[in-house]
Amino acid sequence: MYERLGGMPFFESLTERFYQGVATDEVLRPMYPEDLERPRHHLCLFLAQFWGGPRTYDDERGSPRLRARHLPFKIDRDARDRWLGHMRAAVEEARLGALEKAQLLNYFEAAANHMINSPDD
Length: 121
Hints:
Blueprint: H1 2-5, H2 8-22, H3 37-50, H4 56-61, H5 66-70, H6 77-93, H7 98-115
């Protein structure tokens, strides 16, 4: 699917749009470092690798261990919904075919649900 989506330029654009939303989100923004470039780069590499691209993420960071990497942060349903909202918006702006869009959104929803590690207040 990596090639069908347009390769690395697609994932660079997707993560750039996603982090534009995160940058102004009052719940998510505090979970990130001041400079969002490193997390954007990591997400870009992870997604590219997950969808069949180069294994650069593993080379730079090792196993993704997504849930373990996110345990230090309080992720409740609100945080999940906000993250998913920014990612959905980024996917919508990509103007993909119906199949590719559905595959990406299904993955992002499952991944976001998996990250929940805190009950709602």
